[in-house]
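Morning. Coffee machine broken again, so started the prediction first thing and wrote up yesterday's gels while waiting. Chain of 146 residues, entered below exactly as on the submission form.
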Amino acid sequence: MQPILSCRRLLPAVALALVTLAGVTLSGAGSVFIPINSLASNAAGGAFRVLGGRSFTSTGGLTNAGRVEVGTGSTLNVSGTYTQTAGETTINGRLAGTGPVDLQGGTLTGSGSVAPAVAIAMAASVAPGNSTGVLTFEEGVDLGGT
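Came back before lunch.
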């Protein structure tokens, strides 16, 4: 079982790597964990969750090869490109950002919305809904990938 770090209130700053190999959950609008702000990569086997109405903004681009989840009423804002090379991204809230979403592999799923333009490569897949449902793309979608 993976170790999970859940944050529901302000925690003191501690040294963290910029790569998650375990699980990090930010839950609730007031949750704060300053070292995670510089998260740049969620490695295979890692999990990063933004839940409970939380809005999280990264300080740079974000690469996912594990599991990223954005819950209902929550927002993940990526300051740069969101790149998925493997794993799964579940959006039941909103994925926003300053750069595009580049799906090179893995699966994009959920019933939320994706604000940046999305490029979907042949090795990636999109599965709208949680069993069935609608995943909304607010900008253009390139099904040819990059």
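Residues 4-9+17-142 form one domain. Going to sketch it on the whiteboard this afternoon.
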